[in-house]
């Protein structure tokens, strides 16, 4: 295992994070393969197992920057600049990606659903992705509540923009309070499962909720 040799003073937590990055095979692989982030491999592994990203599907990536998931999605659904089938949304800046339409805005903005549909040529999405995480406080119960609230908001957004039969994939942290979220998702989707891809570090409470078979809004039934 490589260790930092610099004498520059760092907090123990910062030192541990840097050493983990240096020794992380997914970080090395992402650099070698030109991926925007190591998180790209989480989506690749989930897709290998569940076959979410089929050619021609329309995909929305919430909180997309720096673009690792959008990069994977665009390639797998064979999106193009002329007819983008992947829309990335983030209030942060993001460098352009081939086949990805980028909206620099908060997905909570009132006009976000309409802007998204316009970017997809007037169509609804087949898959909504969210690898977002709320800012942490260091207090685990508070941080867990924040991420669950964020996922609930993302799920509500997905309800507005998904076509019937669509799917929703979102990051959560296990902590015992996501039962209400699961119950709500089961009302809207035919199947909901937890997914822990190999690229998600084993010592992390991070996991993913995958909801498939969106039943559609009441007026679409």
UniProtKB/TrEMBL annotation:
Keywords, ordered alphabetically: Cytoplasm, Methyltransferase, rRNA processing, S-adenosyl-L-methionine, Transferase
Catalytic EC class: transferase
Coiled coil start-end: none
Pfam families, alphabetized: FtsJ
EC number: 2.1.1.166
Catalytic activity: uridine(2552) in 23S rRNA + S-adenosyl-L-methionine = 2'-O-methyluridine(2552) in 23S rRNA + S-adenosyl-L-homocysteine + H(+)
Signal peptide positions (record): none
Source organism superkingdom: Bacteria
SUPFAM superfamilies linked: S-adenosyl-L-methionine-dependent methyltransferases
InterPro entries: RNA_methyltr_RlmE, RNA_MeTrfase_FtsJ_dom, rRNA-MeTfrase_E, SAM-dependent_MTases_sf
Catalytic site positions: 171
One of the record's GO cellular component terms: cytoplasm
Residue span(s) of domain Ribosomal RNA methyltransferase FtsJ: 36-214
Chain spans, region Disordered: 196-221
Residues that, per the record, bind S-adenosyl-L-methionine: 67, 69, 90, 106, 131
GO molecular function: rRNA (uridine-2'-O-)-methyltransferase activity
Location(s) in or outside the cell: Cytoplasm
Function statement: Specifically methylates the uridine in position 2552 of 23S rRNA at the 2'-O position of the ribose in the fully assembled 50S ribosomal subunit.
Protein family: Belongs to the class I-like SAM-binding methyltransferase superfamily. RNA methyltransferase RlmE family.
HAMAP family per record: RNA_methyltr_E
Designated name of the protein: Ribosomal RNA large subunit methyltransferase E
Provenance organism: Afifella marina DSM 2698
Protein encoded by which gene: rlmE
């Amino acid at each position: 295992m490589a260790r930092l040799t610099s004498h520059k003073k760092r907090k123990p937590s910062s030192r541990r994070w840097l050493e983990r990055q240096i020794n992380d095979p997914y970080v090395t692989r992402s650099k070698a393969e030109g991926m925007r982030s190591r998180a790209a491999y989480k989506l690749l592994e989930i897709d290998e197992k569940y076959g979410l990203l089929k050619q021609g599907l329309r995909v929305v990536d919430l909180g997309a920057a720096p673009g690792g998931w959008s990069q994977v999605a665009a390639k797998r659904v064979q999106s193009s600049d002329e007819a983008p089938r992947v829309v990335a949304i983030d209030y942060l800046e993001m460098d352009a990606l081939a086949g990805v339409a980028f909206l620099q805005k908060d997905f909570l903005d009132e006009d976000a659903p309409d802007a998204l549909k316009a970017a997809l040529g007037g169509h609804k999405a087949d898959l909504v992705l969210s690898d977002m995480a709320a800012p942490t406080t260091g207090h685990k119960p508070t941080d867990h509540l924040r991420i669950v609230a964020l996922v609930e908001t993302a799920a509500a957004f997905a309800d507005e923009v998904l076509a019937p039969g669509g799917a929703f994939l979102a990051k959560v942290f296990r902590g015992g309070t996501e039962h209400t979220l699961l119950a709500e998702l089961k009302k809207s989707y035919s199947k909901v499962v937890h997914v822990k891809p190999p690229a998600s570090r084993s010592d992390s409470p991070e996991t993913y909720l995958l909801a498939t078979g969106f039943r559609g809004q009441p007026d679409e039934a």
